[in-house]
């Protein structure tokens, strides 16, 4: 594809025929993460200037969908899973298991290429963090967050998300 190597090119800049041919020639992998975990990670990394998680969440909600940062914008609006048929969807928290499967499918030796990942520790830590952070939120904020991320929760298997409870 002629424009592919000329810097950053958005998929929308290709016509429909080029898009279809290009996407058909790649293995498409989408990495997803529970939206509530994304909010927690963003807050802990200091990307929000709020003193508390609750006030950070309120900033996110007040920013709305159109002004949302990529760090917390719903995944469905970023990766367009309804338009792009991804070959694999890899969920954060199951990286070791799922990346091993992907590498084997690609014919690569899975064990030697994977970093040391401790999925169970990550899951336990985020479960604990989620409980702590979720308890800081008002009932209204919880409801608004569930609405804000409703399409992510419908599109991806986040059954243990605090937002889907």
TrEMBL record:
<keyword id="KW-1133">Transmembrane helix</keyword>
<dbReference type="InterPro" id="IPR018011">
    <property type="entry name" value="Carb_sulfotrans_8-10"/>
</dbReference>
<dbReference type="InterPro" id="IPR005331">
    <property type="entry name" value="Sulfotransferase"/>
</dbReference>
<keyword id="KW-0812">Transmembrane</keyword>
<comment type="similarity">
    <text>Belongs to the sulfotransferase 2 family.</text>
</comment>
<keyword id="KW-0333">Golgi apparatus</keyword>
<dbReference type="GO" id="GO:0016051">
    <property type="term" value="P:carbohydrate biosynthetic process"/>
</dbReference>
<keyword id="KW-0472">Membrane</keyword>
<keyword id="KW-0119">Carbohydrate metabolism</keyword>
<dbReference type="GO" id="GO:0000139">
    <property type="term" value="C:Golgi membrane"/>
</dbReference>
<dbReference type="GO" id="GO:0008146">
    <property type="term" value="F:sulfotransferase activity"/>
</dbReference>
<dbReference type="GO" id="GO:0050655">
    <property type="term" value="P:dermatan sulfate proteoglycan metabolic process"/>
</dbReference>
<keyword id="KW-0735">Signal-anchor</keyword>
<dbReference type="Pfam" id="PF03567">
    <property type="entry name" value="Sulfotransfer_2"/>
</dbReference>
<protein>
    <recommendedName>
        <fullName>Carbohydrate sulfotransferase</fullName>
        <ecNumber>2.8.2.-</ecNumber>
    </recommendedName>
</protein>
<keyword id="KW-0808">Transferase</keyword>
<keyword id="KW-0325">Glycoprotein</keyword>
